[in-house]
User: Fold this.
Amino acid sequence: MKGIFIVLEGPDGSGTTKHTQLLAERMRREKYDVLLTAEPTEGAIGKEIRSLLHSQSMPPAEAVQLLFCADRAQHVQEVIEPALRSGKAVICDRYSLSTIIYGAATGVSAQWLKAVNKAFPEPDLTIITLPPADVCMERIRKRAVQDQFETELFQRRIYEGYKAVESPTALFVDTSGEKEEVAEYIWQQVHAHFEPISRESITNLHE
Assistant:
């Protein structure tokens, strides 16, 4: 049986990384076989992206987004698809929606970005972490190091991009509350979304 693919998305400072970790921990306690992963990856292309984001200058916006897509292509082929084929629950911190929203905010055609990313598998559920915008900015200001995408004006555009997402498989979550309460709410929503796919039918593949 094919596994399940969950992606957490949102503006910087919205809590995607923290809540991917908390969700993975909870699903493991519930006996799911979980693969926790993230983009940009720790591969060669992902490391190059991280270096660029903290450099003084950036390549053209289209080139940057193509680097994200190249990293994703390798990630999908070597990590995500094998895990899904083996029946795992894959939880990913950012994915193609980040490329589309961040790329569009830098002036790249959203339609072009969607076309480039069309070849990649769609998540079964996308959780968009979206606290009030001021909460995101306050969290970003507390960071010791900020990257090229973390200016306030740019982040406001990113926020509006996520806010405008419409998809039957997207769930918006306000992450401004206590992290334990938010994590519990996310788990309950995930459980309800995948209830037709019993946990046993996934975990039995690995027994």
Notes: Residues 61-85 form the longest helix (25 residues). Confidence is low (pLDDT under 50) at residues 202-207. The domain at 4-206 is CATH 3.40.50.300 (Rossmann fold).
